[in-house]
Task: structure prediction
Amino acid sequence: MKREIPMIITFVSGMAIIIALFVPHPPFGRVEETFNNWYIIISGFTMILGLNSLLGHNLDKVKRKAEGWPYSLTLILSFFITLIWGIVSTIRTGHIFASTSTFRNYYYTYVFVPLQSTMFALLAFFIASAAYRAFRARTVNATLLLVTASIIMLTQVPKGETVMAPVLGVAALLAVWKLMSEFESAASWTAGLPYLLLSIAIVAVYLPIVEVLRTQTTAVNDWIMNVLQMGAKRGIWLGIALGGIAMGLRIIFGIEKSYLT
Amino acid sequence: MTIFEKQGGIMGLFPFIFALIVGLTGPRNVKVLDKPNDDGSAVIIEWDSASVTPAVKMISIYKIPEEMWGHGSIKVVDLLSRNTFRYVDTQVKPGKRYYYYVRFWGEGDYIDSKIVGPVVPKAEWFHKERLPMLVVLLIYGGLLAYFLKRIRKGEEVYIRPIAGLQAIDDAVGRSTEMGQPVLFILGLGYINDIATLAALSILQRVAKKTAEYESELIVPCFDPVVMTAAQEMVRSGCFEAGRPDLYNQKKVFFLTNDQFGYAAGVDGIMMRERPGAIFLMGLFFAESLILAETGHSVGAIQISGTTSITQLPFFIAATDYTLIGEEMYAASAYLSKDLHQLSTIKAEDMMKGIILATITIGVVLETILTLLGKPIPNYIKQFLEGGLWK
Result:
């Protein structure tokens, strides 16, 4: 029964939500809202478990003087400062975010928000380092990614159309130089022929492509974003939607029981 | 009832007369409709956009329930913007009769529409616009039953290898060899997100593997409910491996409910603990790359999986293996090798095939008809939008 009862509850709740999706008439229409309210109430209580876990975990580290215990001590102190300051501010002003609340005007504005912004700002540097790794043209796929991303960046930055020709020119020269060195080091003339042909192709299409990109900047950008990118995105969305339904049905009908530990 | 009666006699007519003098015209073509496909708790009030002249500054709506007829009205909403031409009143009860009128406000003056109604909100037994959804669900259910039947007859099911899932054992093994812990990050999802449920299934498998290898597993959580579920999953993984003694509840802990606070906390754990393998599974938002890049900087092997489509490129760029969308949902079936679970993936693939075939046929037909210069029958489009029953 330890497994059957949760499975019955899951089945009944899941079916009720599915029925509510198609039957708006009471009592079905508000089932989802009711369940969500129940979830909010339950999750409110589990916050106590969360705090117990957080404080217990860090207090234990401080007691044992485990490696990095000053960080745990900082966390515990910050927790109690936030809690007490928040409660005092609420009692004094009636609302924690009232305009006269010292919690809002000092702690939230000058500690909390800058800390969050600092973490968010790190993203710019991480994007640069991740892009550097992703854009190294080692394979055909990575090269395609590099070329497409470069075009999108050049079509979206100010004066992009002006710098497009020299930037793509340098990129084309580097590509031709790399291909020609591959051609030279090829074992035989026939083995190196594809590199030679590709170099010739790059030189031949460089000017027409730059001209199209320069004069049709918005159209090229829109085409890449709305056709290539959106097509791939929708394919993934389709998979996610069907996968979600499959997973939901597996759980509702008790085919998947991994959540019953 | 006339405007005169409604406004309380001759005194009430002054703003109305003033409105006429300054050129404020009343709302025209006011319509009240029962909101379709609902539980009878809403009424739609619409008026002609052309009747909103520049003299109109604000709009109010009044309601007269049947029992209040002749005894005034209730203000439904005050001060709607002049660009509003439609309002949904959700403060109604099914089966009761309601009358409405709309008031246009000028500079202190106003003018009312005729009283329109009655409208009787009705609770409906079927949401007609969701019929296509029901059809898809029934086809999918049929396919599911079909594949389950075939599997019960002993038929084999082939699921293509998923590199990210195959790499789980290697990642845990590498971490064990290096004597470093395994870090499992469940993202910012809640327990009602299917991606989080899928991530929990993978966590169980990872917990089993770490218990078999006697390796340490750290699971910092964003949500206390998810933390409770994660603790159960890790415990069950240790039990399955026959090593319940290795379960340490303190290693599956709550960190914070704040997005960047969580990112900072997890980054700190990565820098201090130097995990050999990092799993990023579940729902991620702007913090995804912060986590993945820090993981890369400590030299860990990283396996990620998410259904957040905007974060997938970051994971693909920054981690070693990525489970893309549906691959994550398929993970528990794939890892368990349970034939019943695998049959649902087969049904999913078949459904995807049907949808892709339908899209292809639609594109081809529409292209041919456009080239021939013939009008395109819109039945399928209307069916998909639920328009055939509107």
Summary: Chain A has three domains: 1-66, 67-134, 135-251. Residues 67-134 of chain A form one domain. Chain A has eight helices and no strands. Chain A touches chain B through 60 residues (CB under 8 Å).
